[in-house]
Amino acid sequence: MRIRFTKMQGAGNDFVVLDETRQRLELSPAHYRQLADRHFGIGADQILSVRPSPAPGVDFEYVIHNADGGQVEQCGNGARCFARYVVDKGLARGQRIRVQTLSGVIEPQLNPDGRVTVDMGAPVFDLPAVPFDAAGLSPHREGDWHQWHLALEVDAESEIVAVAVLSMGNPHAVLEVADVEQAPVHGQGPAIEHHPRFPKRVNAGFMQVVDRGRIRLRVWERGVGETLACGTGACAAVVAGIRLGRLDARVDVETRGGLLTIEWAGGDAPVRMTGPAMTVFEGEIELQE
Ligand SMILES: N[C@@H](CCC[C@H](N)C(=O)O)C(=O)O
Q1: Would you say residue 143 has pLDDT above 90?
Q2: Active site residue 75
Q3: Which domain of life does the UniProt lineage start with (predicted)?
Q4: Is a pLDDT exceeding 80 seen at residue 160?
Q5: Calpha distance 124→128 (Å, rounded)
Q6: What local confidence, expressed as pLDDT, does residue 271 receive?
Q7: How many angstroms is it from 74 CA to the middle of ligand 1?
C-alpha cells in the first residue's frame, strides 16, 4: 500500500502526520513501526493521524502512536504540529480548534508569531488514574506535595530515585537533577519507564531548575527513548516544580530541540503550552504488508 505523509517537528520532537479525514488507512502496529523507523522508513518519534470529528463540539480526532507502534493518550508537541497541519491544509475553519484525544479534548491555537499555544487541560494527581501503584511506599513531603522513592536496577547496580508522579493525559515521573547534561537519562530512563509500579509504563523527565522561571529538561519517552523535546513532559515537569515549591506560574523550558513556555495557575486550572510547530517535507511511502 502506498500512502502520502507529511513530516513535521515541534522543538525537534518529530512526527509523521497522516490525513485520515476522508478515509481510514487501517494501519497495523507494524506499519506505524515502519513509518517511524529511521533506517527502513521515514523516521519519527510519533505518528499522528488526523481523523474527522467523532462528536458534536469538536473539530477533529487526534490519534497518536509511539515509534514502538503502541497507541498513546496524549502528545503535546504533536498537538501543536496537528494544529499547524489542519490550518495549513485548509482542513480547519479557524485558527482555534477543539481536538478529541484519547485522554480528553485539547484546544490548540495558532499565534500571530507562528508559534502554537495549546490548552492541555488540567494535570491529574490521582495515583490510580496515572496509573501508579504506591502501595506500601511512604511519600517524601516537599512543598505542598510529595515525591516517591523508587528502587531501580541500572547496570546491575541498585539505585534509589525520588520521583514526582502525575498525568498530563499520559503518565509522567519527574526527577530533579543538578545538571541535566550529566543526568543518567539512558540508564535510569528505561529503568523508570519499565518500573513495575507503573502498570502502563511511564515517561521519565530529568529536570534541572535554573531559576524560578526557567528549567532545563531531558525526557526518556515511553515507547521511543530519549527525544529532543517532550511537550507533555515539559508540562509535567513545570507542574511538579510548581507544586514542589521550586517554580513560578510561568516557566521557560529549555530542551535539546528548542524552547517551550509552560503556564499553570495551580489547582484545576489548565496547563498552557506554547512552542514551535514546523513542516519539514512531504512525500509518499510504500508500506510493507
Ligand atoms: N512526544 C510527546 C509524548 C508522546 C507520548 C509519550 N511517549 C507517551 O508514551 O506517553 C509530547 O510531546 O508530549
Answers
A1: no
A2: yes
A3: Bacteria
A4: yes
A5: 10
A6: 98
A7: 6
